[in-house]
Amino acid sequence: MQDKTYNADVPLSSDEVQVSGSSSQDSLSPRKKMPRLESNLLKDANEESDEAEDTDAQSDWAYGGDTFLERSDYGLIRWYPEDPHSFLSDDSSHCDYQLMTHLYHTIHLDEFFKTQINQHFIMKDLVRGPNREKIKGFYLRTRSEEQPPHNKYGNCSYYIKFMSLVELCLENNIRQFYLLDACQSNNKCATRYLITDNTERFFKHQWAFDCRGYGGSWHAIPGPLWYEHKYARYIRGFRSNQDWPVLHELEFFVSIADALRDALFSRCKAKCEEHAESNNEDNCYRYRNGSAEDWLICPYPYSKQETLNELKRFVRTDGTLCRSFS
Questions:
Q1: Where are the domains of the chain?
Q2: Is the pTM of this model over 0.85?
Q3: Contacts for 154 with CB less than 8 Å, ≥ 6 apart
Q4: Is the separation of the CB atoms in 228 and 220 below 8 Å?
Q5: Beta strand 97-99 pairing with 227-232
């Protein structure tokens, strides 16, 4: 595949937020090997890179070939790519990105009420690494146009514009996102990135991802004032040599301090989701994930309208809860 140089003067929508450090002269090439210690998501162009390495993490998260991390009992494979910019399939029919407009945090009805009461997202554990280290946070996910109306993650979604999230990160000096891993099952694969304000804990430079390089699971094209962020519709599978494209979902695991979490929550809006088919096969991520023998009955198999009716029973017109939810 020949190298491509992208026109930096990409017109963006008027409501996008200016991101500091954008460069109108960046040249982005397919399969470009980005130096691991210089990877930087939203860093000012003139800011010098700190070249310090964290040697404790190098052996477990090394490049030079896709690294197998873990296989679950039900066939889910966690892996790390040979290069963070090697996700894009060489199949020309799938070599495209779609605009990343919003991110979604989707939960079941019981968690939605708890979230409304607390006025911040419920933090859960993400287990990662050879030492099974636990990170507390919550997920924000993209939503592809090819996904069915049924939402396997739950009944209600909080959603936020991606550029609003970027703006909040910049305001709080979060200028790097970190590639955690890829999670593949059958013909689907999710790539997971960490957003954190605790960079010292997470090996400040080891997985810092530069989204300006072509070939990653998401990609930023610099325009005259802003970055236009897109994510891949399809990516290659584990050790597939780019010849087996799989449907892609982009996930951000957000692990931040309480004050910042509250600020993010205040920027979100909420909506009802279609979850009526949750007890059909593996259509519920919370209750019917993994091996079939471990599946449970989802207690909230509601359509959008049914969810709205449930909300009307418990929520006043001003958004406050009128009675407890059990």
A1: 59-314
A2: no
A3: 106, 107, 108, 109, 111, 112, 273, 275, 285, 286, 300
A4: yes
A5: antiparallel
